[in-house]
């Protein structure tokens, strides 16, 4: 095993142990995250791993922020923010597919890096906007009808939550810039992440409310849409 992979395994095992011991992930979710992390390193390098870690840390902080208040208001899951394997796949499954493709088509490395960053920007934007919007939002609106709606309902947005989502997307875009030493696609990643979040809200207001999609699938489609935005832009 190459030295880089020895370090990688050490970092992944350490992260998996931490996530389970602090009850942020189930054992299954931790193992799933470990496999995805390995794929990201193999296909993208340490940059891909750092973006995944950044998303995870931000998601943990946003979920835990004023958790008791959210639980009492019925705005948080009763598992205290502990994520399952399906939730990990919903947020990072697209990135894993991108990393696998990158292994077979390394000549398009730039494209895969930007698509990966866009998918994580969307996942981060969605998580931050939902978690912080439910805490700091003043007025809540249905994303399609723009009529006032109930806080925490699928497809409901607030100005405060939207701004938080933009900040989350921006953070991942800047992580990309640091990892890959380029500011060229920072705005694209930011916009792709934000639009992915908007698509998440639209799907939540329509198909999820009608029980045609569940939250995990909506999150997966959110990240997929963001990655495809980046792909379309870079292919033109």
Describe this structure in words.
- It is a single chain.
- With 236 residues, the protein is mostly helical.
- Helix content is 74%, strand content 2%.
- It has nine helices and two strands, in the order ααααααββααα.
- Strands 1-2 form a two-stranded antiparallel sheet.
- The chain is globular and about 50 Å long.
- The mean pLDDT is 93.
Summarize the topology:
Blueprint (H helix, E strand, L loop, with lengths): L2 H19 L5 H17 L2 H19 L2 H6 L12 H20 L4 H28 L4 E2 L13 E2 L1 H22 L5 H23 L6 H21 L1
Antiparallel strand pairs: 1-2
Helix pairs in contact: 1-2, 2-3, 2-5, 3-6, 3-7, 5-6, 5-9, 6-7, 6-8, 6-9, 7-8, 8-9
Task: Please sum up the structure shown.
This protein is mainly α and about 240 residues long. It contains nine helices and two strands.
């Amino acid at each position: 095993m190459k030295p880089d992979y020895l370090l990688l395994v050490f970092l992944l095992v350490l992260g998996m142990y931490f996530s389970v011991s602090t009850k942020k992930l189930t054992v299954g979710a931790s193992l799933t995250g470990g496999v995805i992390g390995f794929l990201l390193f193999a296909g993208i390098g340490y940059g891909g791993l750092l973006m995944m870690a950044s998303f995870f840390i931000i998601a943990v902080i946003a979920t835990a922020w004023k958790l008791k208040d959210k639980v009492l208001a019925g705005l948080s899951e009763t598992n205290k923010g502990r994520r399952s394997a399906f939730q990990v796949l919903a947020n990072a499954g697209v990135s894993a597919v991108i990393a696998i493709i990158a292994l077979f088509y390394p000549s398009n490395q730039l494209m895969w890096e930007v698509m990966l960053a866009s998918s994580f920007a969307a996942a981060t934007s969605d998580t931050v906007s939902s978690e912080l919007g439910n805490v700091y939002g003043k007025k809540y609106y249905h994303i399609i009808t723009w009529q006032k709606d109930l806080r925490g309902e699928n497809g409901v947005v607030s100005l405060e939550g939207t701004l938080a989502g933009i900040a989350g997307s921006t953070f991942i875009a800047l992580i990309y810039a640091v990892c890959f030493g380029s500011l060229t696609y920072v705005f694209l990643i930011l916009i792709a992440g934000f639009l992915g979040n908007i698509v998440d809200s639209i799907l939540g207001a329509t198909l999820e409310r009608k029980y045609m999609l569940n939250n995990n699938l909506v999150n997966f489609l959110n990240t997929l849409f963001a990655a495809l935005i980046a792909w379309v832009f870079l292919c033109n």
